[in-house]
Amino acid sequence: xxxxxxxxxxxxxxxxxxxAEKTPIIIILDDIRSLHNIGSVFRTADAFLIEKIYLCGIxxxxxxxxxxxxxxxxxxTVDWEYSKNVLDLIEKLKNEGISIWAxxxxxxxxxxxxxxxxxxKKYALIFGNEVKGVSQEAIQKSEGVIEIPQLGTxxxxxxxxxxxxxxxxxxxxxxxx
Length: 177
Known about the structure:
Elements: H1 14-19, E1 23-30, H2 35-47, E2 50-56, H3 65-71, H4 74-77, E3 80-83, H5 86-95, E4 99-103, E5 110-111, E6 123-127, H6 136-141, E7 144-147, H7 159-176
Parallel strand pairs: 1-2, 1-6, 2-3, 4-6, 4-7, 5-7
Helix pairs in contact: 2-3, 2-7
């Protein structure tokens, strides 16, 4: 085995990325404090051709030096928009026929490994504040809640790790059908 050079990775340029068919997933980041988390989620969204990221509440927006440090240019490829109020955004997306799912630990959550996607449906995933999580109001407005199974003592993952796990899982399920 030989490590591939960057020139062998078949990377899209910005125009090719913008023109490419997107994965029908929208990411909603609500009240995310860490600029590094925001940048990391942008990078994950770029990797899986995610349709759009919504930045809500106190979540910082590009251009920002600290977001750029971890996004590595993904803020230039992935479509994003700021929305002050996550509850208003949820209503807007619901009216567009998008299925809204919070990623959180709640009663009656759907474990990620048991979550089944529906063909030809678009999904929006809400990731909440690093300390408080997704707000109860946003959970109540969601179609349901996806939980990442965890077996250790912490039952807590970094927001960027959680986004990577959930996006990868849904990406696989969407592309296997």
